[in-house]
Amino acid sequence: MDNRQPPPQSLLDSLPESTTGDARDPAPVHLWHPEFIGELDMHITRDGTWYHEGGPISRKSLAQLFSGILRLDEDGRYYLVTPVERWAIKVDDVPFVAVRLEVEGQGREQRLTFFTSLGHSMVAGEEHPITVRVDTDTHEPSPYVLLRSNLQALIHRNVFYELADLAVDEKVEGQSRIGVWSDGIFFPIDGSVASA
């Protein structure tokens, strides 16, 4: 008699029911190259809300678990990845949102720590740069901070206003730019492109 359990029907079936509620270290998804299984009915909206089968994921701990196995591949698609399976999911913009900012120090000694809605934190600097994209039609800025690998967090509008209050003028490649200092690096936030 075969006592083996059938494989889970979806990634959801293989996740534990409870966690600590804290953001966990991400899994080493860059080392895994499993078979592509298909599209999972999962969607991350621009405000950072995770949806599954049309409804929001109400358990923050579950969204945190998923965020730890998320990967953006070279094809521009987002996947949830385990050692044995890879599922494509839909992401409207980027998968994370930075909803809080802590500031230490001033001027060039300043350190900016961002916190996402899922409890991740990162200090803006060489490994976690701030970038701003400007919509060519609306001219609205969209600011981001790199969380890990190639996964970004959209900086929430209220947090961007805080950055604007900290902004200073600096010369970048001979051009005056408005931006912020963090961890010894100046990040322009004015959305313009410095001339070469």
TrEMBL record:
Residues 1-28 are annotated as: Disordered. The lineage of its organism: Bacteria, Pseudomonadati, Pseudomonadota, Gammaproteobacteria, Pseudomonadales. This is Proteophosphoglycan. It comes from Halopseudomonas litoralis. Residues 27-94, 95-189 form the DUF1285 domain.
